[in-house]
Amino acid sequence: MDIIRVEGGHAIEGSVCVSGAKNSALKLMAATLLAPGKTTLTNVPNISDVHVMGKVLKRMGATIEVVDEHSLVIDTSSVDSWEAPYELVAKMRASTAVMGPLLGRFGRAKIAMPGGCNLGARKIDMHILGLEALGVEFDTDHGYIYADASKGLTGTSVTLEFASVGATENLIMAAVKAKGETVIDNAAREPEIVDLANMLNKMGAKITGAGTPVVTIEGVDELHPVEHRVVGDRIEAGTFLVAGAIMASEQGVEVTGFNPVHLGMVLRKMELMGIRTERTENGMKVYRADRIAPVDIQTLPFPGFPTDMQAQVMVLSALADGTSIITENIFENRFMFASELSRMGANIRVEDHHALIHGVDGFSGAQVVSPDLRGGAALVIAGLIAEGVTEVSAIHHIYRGYERFVEKLTALGACVERVTLPDSIDD
Ligand SMILES: CC(=O)N[C@H]1[C@@H](OP(=O)(O)OP(=O)(O)OC[C@H]2O[C@@H](n3ccc(=O)[nH]c3=O)[C@H](O)[C@@H]2O)O[C@H](CO)[C@@H](O)[C@@H]1O
Ligand SMILES: C=C(OP(=O)(O)O)C(=O)O
């Protein structure tokens, strides 16, 4: 079993460059299915979720050439299967992003039903309702969804009940090949959706309005392969900014490789907490806060505060002078992290989707378990300032979305290592 061991109390400084965004790269990889031929993706993060999406595409008959650690050439010309199997969907829910492209190109898809995960039920009913409006017929059998668009996809108007990222993406990727115009109202506006639309437009799609609540897609007959660079990971950037806010030396920590505009609400809340950040030529610099002010945050779809930054910012609020309140509106079960942070001395009371966080003077190192991807990363960050040693287990969650997390922190001067523990005699 591998764990991440952190010795607290070492200041960090210097510059860290974030990788390409997981939440964009996965969808861009799925979108290559729409353009038979070789699409080149650069700035692809080397993380386990990307490896899983690679396996999904290869199972369908795609070939993937790894040009270098961050560049992939994906050839989808010989794809001859339309199935995302259970063992891969169970590993990564974002495998469902192949549904829209498969329907767009082949008119059919067989996708294992994703089921819930440690964040909540995570249904895909909105994906299905939207695709049905485009003319897709659905059937479910033995845990699989069978989607059939053999009668063709026809442009339509879809109003999403909630601005779902995944539903918006699947609808866009199907609608690019539909006959006529599709309008998605109450579309999600995340920067990763804009990245997807940009790549699809380069491929020949006609999408306007991505990044606004109304996305319009004029269907086309064919898409062609392109070269595209994955947008920088705003959530990884935010994670390192939080690390700097609690442990930077006087020089501060610079985070590069992302667009600060994508972190607008996070930076605003950090400012309200008394954390000083400044724009640099290539990103943002953050300085350690002597005193952190309590804050009131609620997670919302972009441009609201991202749920994927909730755990990291809870670390800051747990050290504030006063009581903060964090409301989680996106996932019903995203406070598992709070009880792990409490093992390190945090004072947090969770009631439904609200967390009341009474600031404490410091954390004490402890053995804790990553409850999920962002919670795991946040525990490592908390360990940077904790007194003594923190050992974080279940770190496979962290490696789903953070490339070289330990190495990047170590390069900043943190005392962090990945350790393989011998099997216990009880195993
Ligand atoms: C791989 C990826 O890009 N993941 C991101 C994506 O997840 P994902 O695309 O799954 O998130 P959604 O925006 O779709 O989901 C938000 C909420 O809507 C619910 N819902 C969604 C679809 C549906 O058909 N029915 C339904 O009830 C979900 O259970 C959840 O409670 O956006 C989330 C919200 O910004 C981020 O936290 C995830 O990191
Ligand atoms: C929730 C996340 O991802 P996923 O949707 O892949 O589980 C995340 O990136 O924090």
The largest β sheet comes out as: 4 strands, mixed
Q: Spatial order of the strands in the main sheet?
A: 22-23-1-24
CATH level 3 topology of the largest domain: UDP-n-acetylglucosamine1-carboxyvinyl-transferase, Chain
- Find the CATH superfamily of the largest domain: Enolpyruvate transferase domain
Bound molecule types? uridine-diphosphate-N-acetylglucosamine, phosphoenolpyruvate
List the uncertain runs: none
Number of domains: 2
**What is the class of the largest domain in the CATH system?**
Alpha Beta
Task: Give the rounded overall mean pLDDT.
Answer: 96
At a glance:
This protein has 427 residues and is an alpha/beta fold.
Task: Give a description of the structure.
The active site is at residue 117. One of its GO terms (molecular function) is UDP-N-acetylglucosamine 1-carboxyvinyltransferase activity. This protein is an alpha/beta fold. The protein folds into two domains: 2-19 and 232-420, UDP-n-acetylglucosamine1-carboxyvinyl-transferase, Chain (Alpha-beta prism), CATH 3.65.10; 22-218, Enolpyruvate transferase domain (UDP-n-acetylglucosamine1-carboxyvinyl-transferase, Chain). It contains 14 helices and 24 strands. Phosphoenolpyruvate is lined by residues 22-23, 93-94, 119, 308, 373-374, 401. Phosphoenolpyruvate binds next to helix 1 and helix 12.
Structural descriptors:
427 residues, alpha/beta, UDP-n-acetylglucosamine1-carboxyvinyl-transferase, Chain, four-stranded mixed β-sheet, 14 helices, 24 strands, globular, binds uridine-diphosphate-N-acetylglucosamine, binds phosphoenolpyruvate, UDP-N-acetylglucosamine 1-carboxyvinyltransferase
